[in-house]
Amino acid sequence: MLLFIVFAPLVTALLILLGAPARLTALLGAAATAVAALAGLFLYDAARGGFQFVSSFPISESWRLQFLLGADGLSLLMLFLAALVLLCAVWFTPPIEKSERLFYACLLFLASGAIGAFASLDLFFFYAFHELALIPTFLLIGIWGSGNRFAAAWKVTIYLGIGSFVLLLGLILLYRSVPPELRSFDLRALQAAAAGGGITLRAQSQIFFLLLIGFGVLISLFPFHTWAPEAYASAPAPAAMLHAGVLKKFGLYGLLRVALPLLPDGAHHWNTLLIVLLLGNIIYVGLVTLAQKRLDWMLGYSSVMHMGYIFLGIASANVIGLNGAAVLMFAHGISIALLFALAGEIRRRTGTLVLSDLGGLGKVMPFAGFAFGVATFAAIGLPGFANFAAEVMVFFGAFRVGADWQGFHLLQTATLLALWGVVISAVYMLRAYRSIFMGEINDRWKNLPDLSRTLRLPIILLVAATLVVGFFPNTTLRVLRPTFPAPVAAAHP
Amino acid sequence: MTSLLPWIALLLPLASMFVILLATRSLRTLSAFISVAAVLGSFVCSCLIFFQQTSAAAAICWIDLAPLFSVPLGLTLDPLSRSMLFMVTGVGAVIHIYSLGYMSADAGKSRYFAGLSLFMFAMLGIVLANNFVMMFIFWELVGVSSYLLIGHWFERPAAAEAAKKAFITNRIGDFGFMLGILMVWTGTGSLVFTEIAAGMAKLTAHPSYLTAAALLVFCGAVGKSAQFPLHVWLPDAMEGPTPVSALIHAATMVAAGVYMLVRVGFLIDASSGALHVIAWIGTITAVLAALMATQQNDIKRILAYSTLSQLGYMVMAVGLASGQAAMFHLFTHAAFKALLFLGAGSIIYMLHHEQDIWRMGGLAKRLPITFLTFLVGTLALIGFPGFSGFFSKDAILALAYERSLPIFAFAAFTALLTAFYMTRLVVVAFFGDARSPHAARGAESPIVMTLPLILLSVPAAIGGFGFFARNFLSLPNETKPVVAVPVIALLALLIGVVSALLLYRNRTTEPVEIELFRNRFYFDELYTALIKSTQGLLAAIAAFIDRWILDGAIVRGLSGGTWGSGFLLRLLQVGNLQAYGFLFGLGIIGLIYFTVFH
Fold this sequence. Notes:
The complex is a heterodimer. Chain A contains 21 helices and two strands. By secondary structure, chain A is mainly alpha-helical. A two-stranded antiparallel ribbon of chain A has the order 1-2. Chain A is globular, with a radius of gyration of 21 Å. Chain B has helices at residues 5-22, 28-52, 79-102, 109-128, 132-150, 157-188, 193-198, 200-204, 207-224, 233-236, 242-251, 253-263, 265-268, 272-293, 299-319, 323-350, 363-366, 368-382, 388-403, 405-430, 437-441, 447-462, 466-469, 484-504, 515-518, 523-559, 565-574, 577-597; strands spanning 60-65, 69-73. By secondary structure, chain B is mainly alpha-helical. The chains are: A mainly alpha, B mainly alpha. Chains A and B meet through α5, α6, α13, α15 and α18 of A and β1, α5, α6, α26 and α27 of B.
């Protein structure tokens, strides 16, 4: 099962490079992956819990290194997100003029990196798969990007490279922090070692700091976020969808999968720092987002901002907040992918994403206007969409930590500010919607064609996914509950 | 089966919305009829629920993280919600039918009716919700349906702006609401109203916490019911189609704030500090809005300010700890204000979207049904004896007289202003000579629009009598009838009517110009300046820092002599991917080798 999910996109990419019809093969490969991932979600036995569908292939006995795949609810949710966004990204790919095969292969490699990381239970491959995704990112922006694409491609690659480097240091130290006889790349073994108190407090806090910064760079944690808006603005829409929607979740996944369970005391130690930084994401980046005058930059910053809410769920370190964070990772992936997809379609038609140049497009592109409206309301957390259910859990989880009758403490204040962030995101999203689709139409846009009918399917798929989770969050929580059974870190900051 | 009835009432409009969006978007008339059928179905269910006194409904669990956190989706069925259900679906049905006429030629008819269905779903959800999160869910959903319907004519810049303003202003109120919900939940450990009410002792032991929580919950009502200082969105919301103004921005949604306060009365009433603030917010809103209404020329805006003012009365009643008086006025107001808006819509429709009362005149003869029903609505609104508003307003005035004389004084003054601006509206619009070509040629609206007017004028006229109202509400029991209250109220009414008659009879232009009132006390200008100088400025500063310092500094850091930059810089200059990848891989392998296996 997992082998298929991991290798289907890779094999598809290779087939395309070898000469299979690019778009069709990519669509089929992505669809098969998505179906398999969805099946995984259904087949996962939540009552049994733990990692399932495990398969392992020893690589080196002496290094205790093996190619080890396995998934629990969190991984399966992320796998499904990755496969679904991949499918839609492929679908939304416009006709490519230069090296079409390479473009589709890059998309598939990018998704494979994320998928492989989500499915790996082995630290080495967990890291290696993510590195695999950096190269196609560089190529996609550098070759098919727009604007100042070379600078953006270099910037994002170097930035993420540094982040990965810090992360690698952290992971190596983590490997070395357990007693030599317990050392392994197997996450389950490490977890057992950590649970037995194998990692000292001092080591925990050092390693957690490295992991927080390393993963943080990849997630665009404030103040390491400036690569993101520029990269997303320059990247072709399908690449932005995959990167902002899926690959960025790798860092969050890493925090939830590696850092929190293995280093609970380290997480506790750095929680205040994390809260301060996440407020930077929500309030400071929120304000920056308000000041943006171009849609692509605005969406880029907004995706940085929304990472703050996921961090808030992580910082709450309780069942409610962590489940909320996990659902929000999924919800955000869907909504930002849809927004980037539509932004790409607008850019393809108008050649501009400057908000003040657009206007009144709802008249000529009613379906695009409708879809963008849905995505906007999903992004600002309207009930019915998964984003709302997730944010509710994040807020309730965070607010209760250390609450008493006397007044607001750290996490209550953070929740208050995060709630204000919800107002900020409504302001910038509705402002963008108003200036793009509402108002009087500029004569230049009188003859723009609406989205082609074939694009309805991927839009409906994305919207349906977020609506199902939003209406029935219990469906997702059912598979997630075994992942977050009890407080994984000490609750009080 | 009976336990499913409320769910059917709730879900029919939602189903209608999905059907319209997914299937019948291009078949405009069919969409309209689907929506009307759905609301009629809901109305029938509501009638059954009302007359059978259904009190049980199935419940499901929305978020289940028990024992820490669980959000049920359950329905409250008590006399309050049953009456409200009946009223909302009844008024909703009437206005849906009216919309068939008013929006008959509109190109976006499917979108419009889908929006109305979404609204009905959300509003019924508010009425039926049995816990805070569920109420918040539907609270947000009415907000979005309001946004969509205000912005129905989205190509008009004014409508686009108004929609955005309404949504964001409501979000500010909801910011407080959510915080209040969080505090209540943290304090009591529950979200369900009945459980919180049972566990109030936990909160009353900490009065300042309770007051803060109650006031934060009240913030939600301040936004939704457009109370001062968040009242600015409602007048602008009149950019939406007139039936929407009648349904959402007069009869039901804006009253949801009041309904919510009554629903959580156990929380509000427990804090005298919160009650005090609420009463005064209501009073301030009532007076300010009435003053603004006296100088407006747009017929819908006059009614909008009047709605603000009447909502102020209701909130005042809540603050005076009488949810019954508030609900009484909410019900009568729903009938007569919906009637007035639909009457205004009938005029606007027949006068080709003319809304300036100074360009009307003499309409009494040309639109007789509209005129007569509008008159009924006006008499009810100004509290003419025998009409519904008389009884409900009297109940609030008596309450204020008993509990706080300053508030009573303001309330009576508001009654005077109400009589004044409504008389002005009727005299200028319906009497005298026609002052525009459209007004001179106006004729009565089609039956699909006048029938709702006639239907609504019945409760607007007699809805205040005990024999009628007692079926729906537990009326505020007047402990000791005070003669002074109706006397003062009548006096205020007379002064208002007579002065307006004297001032506006046979006028063709406005005789008195009070800029302060006309410009809404400059609240909008004040807020715009405030937002620009705080949030706008902060945003500009943050954007500057991000661009030139955070990002700039990093670029400088890379080219400077800090850690690792030498080797990165060289990579940059190579500018060649293979070299980069090679070095990167080499570095990783080296690192792994040295740190792990050495």
